[in-house]
Amino acid sequence: MTSAAVSPASPLADLDQHALRAVHAEISAAYDELKAAGLKLDLTRGKPGSDQLDLSNDLLHLPDGEFRDAAGTDLRNYGGATGLPELRAIFANALRVPVSQLLALGNASLTVMHDVIVQALLHGVPGSERPWGSRQISFLAPVPGYDRHFSIAERYGIRLIPVPLNDDGPDVEAVAALLATDDSIKGMWCVPVYSNPTGAVYSEEVVRALVSLPAADDFRLFWDNAYAVHHLSDERPAPIDVLSLAAEAGNPDRPLIFASTSKVTYPGAGVAFVGGSEANVEWIVRNMAVQSIGPDKLNQLRHVRLLRDEQGLEAHMEKHRAILEPKFAAVAGAFERRLAPYGAGTWTSPKGGYFVSLDVLDGCAKRAIELAAQAGIAVTPAGATFPYGDDPRDANIRIAPTFPPLAELETALDGLCTAILLAETESLLAARD
Ligand code: PMP
């Protein structure tokens, strides 16, 4: 493992020219050593590690010849468009959606989000006077956020308007001001629990505001609860019943809730969920009826047999936590050791989810990621956490620590810190020249 032994350290920005040059020289030497090591490491995407995938290997032989649900229906055949009630029951409480209003569908929640948007563009949603696609529309995008959310909107010409994401959720004043003045806003991306990438958890106060602010009747919160059960500590947020809060506020149709087992069992071979008001669910079922004669109910049965019940789900997620906690501790440890002494960045300490959000000095994220790439360490591209790939401060870096084995992760983090310190010392020296 390469590690620049520079001490004692003080914030880079406070160093005089001489001291800054000395740190730069030392970090450059460490970087040369790093490059010579010929690493090939990947911190780009939030994928479970293979030891996490092993936790669900019973899926590979389940359902052990069974093919009927509790009602005795033959699941090998067509039908059952709303998904297996037993599986919906396992997730209903964690998602705070009644089983009757929670559908279990295909293998990816992103597909469901995409389809809801395309259907809304073509036909409108309940409450729409006309299809969304009949005019230029916009979505609010809390930033930093999830690049694949932004890609769906970008693909269909939906204008993305960034709003700041605070520790307790999107900045309500900014959201309220935009909704009050811009009637082209039809949607908002929300990851309410352990948000990607900051780990922010929306507070009840923020959720109450989001469901009650004045907005168009066909304004929708795309409530992507991808990490509802993905805890990394004992400090757990109480699940928020966004549907009831929205109904109380007189806007029952506002939230559309999405989730999946991608990071519970197997990404790509799991089950996606969507929930909402009765009107929204009926609209989704109607849209689906022309696309599919039913989901993969045998995969859903496999999941029921693996997870068994809500307690089984919780126990399964504890096993994920045991694998992931040391990886998140490694991120905090590396940044504390390598970046903190130089005031070289600020980062989040998520209590769950899959990511850490790191802000380096303004103007340095792109260069740091480029330097890391040249040393064989792949990091999510700079700007990915902002609509149109445009981070106005060029400061945010998304860290995805779950996939590499711990030792590789530690090497990659140390190398990334060297790249960051080099980018920052370069940038500070250039600004003073
Ligand atoms: N939503 C969020 C917030 C995610 O981080 C991810 C995966 N990175 C997804 C959705 C993708 O979910 P799925 O596999 O169900 O499409």
Describe the structure in your own words.
The protein is an alpha/beta fold. The protein has 2 domains: about 10-50 and about 315-430, Aspartate Aminotransferase, domain 1; about 70-305, Aspartate Aminotransferase, domain 2. Helix content is about 40%, strand content about 15%. It has 13 helices and 13 strands. The chain has helices at about 15-35, 50-55, 85-95, 110-125, 145-155, 170-180, 205-210, 240-250, 280-290, 295-305, 310-340, 365-375, 405-430, and strands spanning about 40-45, 100-105, 140-145, 160-165, 170, 185-190, 220-225, 255-260, 270-275, 345, 355-360, 375-380, 395-400. The strands form 3 sheets. It has an 8-stranded mixed sheet with strand order 2-9-8-7-6-3-4-5, with helices on both faces. Strands 10-11-13 form a 3-stranded antiparallel sheet, with helices on one face. Strands 1-12 form a two-stranded parallel sheet. Helix 8 links the parallel strand 7 and strand 8. Helix 7 packs across helix 8 (about 240-250), helix 11 packs across helix 13 and helix 12 packs across helix 13 (about 405-430). The longest helix is centred in the C-terminal third of the chain and has 29 residues, at about 310-340. It starts with 16 loop residues before the first helix and ends with a helix. Bound molecules: 4'-deoxy-4'-aminopyridoxal-5'-phosphate. 4'-deoxy-4'-aminopyridoxal-5'-phosphate binds near residues 196 and 260.
